[in-house]
Amino acid sequence: MRHHHFGKQLSRDIKQRKTLFKSLINSLVIHNRIRTTEAKAKAVRGLADRLIAKGKVKTPQMRRLIAGFLQNKQAVNKIVDQLGPLFKKRPGGFTRIVRLGRRQGDDAMMVRLELVESPPDQSAEAKPATRKIISTKKTKK
């Protein structure tokens, strides 16, 4: 029986489920979007929104609370330094779910979980070096 078990179990025990949620939220924060199943996205969306709401309050205590859950310094810094000020005026609903279709192997509904607004990308400022295209055609003699 499921006495006092809140949320989706996703056929995992509590340690596996927490680790799954942490890794999904870390990927969402770092990459601004992830592709996953609908059940996982719905289970993670509320947690991600709560962490971003904590990041809006820019205090050391909130940074510690976020770091205690995520345990990824890069994700914590991005939530507090970039996403918090970006969503300052928005009261909630920081993520959206977009359906992509069914996965071919097991017919699971695949979705894209993404942030509603994207932070300004620093990689756009530093342009990557262009790569030369080497021709593989053989020349006739």
TrEMBL record:
State the Gene3D superfamilies in the record: Ribosomal protein L17
- Cellular component annotations (GO), alphabetically ordered: large ribosomal subunit
Disordered: annotated segments:
118-141
Q: Does the keyword DNA damage apply?
A: no
The UniProt entry, under SUPFAM superfamilies, shows: Prokaryotic ribosomal protein L17 (SSF64263)
Alphabetically sorted, this entry's keywords are: Ribonucleoprotein, Ribosomal protein
Q: From its record, what is one biological process in GO terms?
A: translation
Gene Ontology molecular function, alphabetical:
structural constituent of ribosome
Question: Does the entry feature the keyword Magnesium, yes or no?
Answer: no
| Family designation | Belongs to the bacterial ribosomal protein bL17 family.
NCBIfam families from the UniProt entry: L17 (TIGR00059)
Q: What is this protein called?
A: 50S ribosomal protein L17
* Organism of this sequence: Candidatus Shapirobacteria bacterium CG09_land_8_20_14_0_10_49_15
Organism taxonomic ancestry: Bacteria, Candidatus Shapironibacteriota
